[in-house]
Design a protein that fits this description.
This protein has helices at residues 25-31, 45-56, 105-111, 116-120, 132-138, 141-164, 176-183; strands spanning 11-13, 76-82, 85-90, 95-100, 123-129, 167-168, 190-198. The protein has 202 residues and is of the alpha+beta class.
Amino acid sequence: MKSLRNKTDKVIHLPEPASDGGISVEAALAKRESVRHFASVPLTLSQISQIFWAAQGITRDWGGRTAPSAGALYPLELYLALRDGFFHYIPRGHQLVHVSDHDFIGDLASVALGQQCIGESSAVVVIAAVYERIEQRYGRRGERYVKVEAGHAAQNILLQAVSQGIGAVPVGAFHDDDVRKVLSLPADHEPLYLIPLGHIRK
């Protein structure tokens, strides 16, 4: 894949996601495994589109998404780290907003205990939580609901990766404050998951 965007583009409108990937849910579940070794081949824009649609894509006219959310409050924010930049996913309009030209993948590997799977990956999905969105309604119980929702979104990503023929692994071992600092995330964004993705190294 060439650079994801022209240097003047701030917003990338992702391709329309497919609704039939040609593999059953049962087959995807059976094939899912944690892949930690990746080939140095970038993902296509279509693959990126499917991954983000699976995680938080809008599937209902009223704004309902692929992953269930307590009270439909949607406290998750998703980001994408690539070799040629860093992007924020916006479900409404199914688009990526350019945040930085910097390659943060090596930095993320460093703050994730030097994990090779991150350093080798072509892309890293960052799932962050904004607890205030849900705690206003559910109080302290809201934290549990956010983490449950993050699990839904992460599993959707993992199964969609299988459907796309690419590898992925969920990573929770990292220094939260360092991830936030490296990526310059807003203060209310709590990183919960790093999910490196890429073509499987043979």
